Amino acid sequence: MENETNKPAKNPAETSNRLIIGILLIIAGFILILRKTTVLPEPLDNFIDDIIFSWQMLLIVIGVITLAGSDNKTPGIVLISVGGFFMIPELFTDFFRSFNFFWPALFIVIGVVLLINSKRLVKTLNYTSGNKADMIDYVNIFSGAERQLITNNFLGGKITSIFGGGEVDLTRSSLAPGDNVIEITCIFGGTTIIVPENWNVILNVTPILGGFSDSRRIGSDVIKDTTRSLTIRGTVIFGGGELKSHR
Predict the structure, then answer these.
(1) In whole angstroms, what is the distance from residue 232 CA to residue 212 CA?
(2) What is the pLDDT of residue 1?
(3) Taking a C-beta distance cutoff of 8 angstroms, is the pair 239, 209 a contact?
């Protein structure tokens, strides 16, 4: 008999995601069955077409799943905000016109993202024994930039790309001892991170209608320092990213 203690522990976030997705699929299935029976009144049938199975509702659902399954709540909040905002004119057609409020709402959403990210970065710095010169905090909004950091004690940091992108070159830096973390948030944008071949890098990025790939070509003669590691985590929504080396 297999020893129960040897079984890998289940990830609570993954279990929560599966539970939410399962419930939503069951509800969607029942709604579709009711529609096929043609017993629903026309107003309710139109409500299902215009609201329940709309792209706005899709963003809201993805946002809820992201909130439940990730420590970084920013992408989930943004998706729910954007989906909810564009849902308003569908619910209150006579009072709202979405495109009259598009740019103000977009500015508000971007501002919320920056505030949340700044708060998280300050909290990280307060609990880190290094100085700010050993961390990154790069923000690309409707723009892009190529940056290079040179430090012998890299501690990680944050990269935020919204309708923009950038490249970060860390090949002339060295990792600080222990585990160091870069948190990325890419929404309709992307980022490229270039690291030395001998870095021990762990990818823990959640892509939603996007992706983040490891494109490094590590030679067989490269010896990794297992006493130091870099974890890249975060969420990529309608965007992309890439981890590279110079080989």
Answers:
(1) 10
(2) 44
(3) no
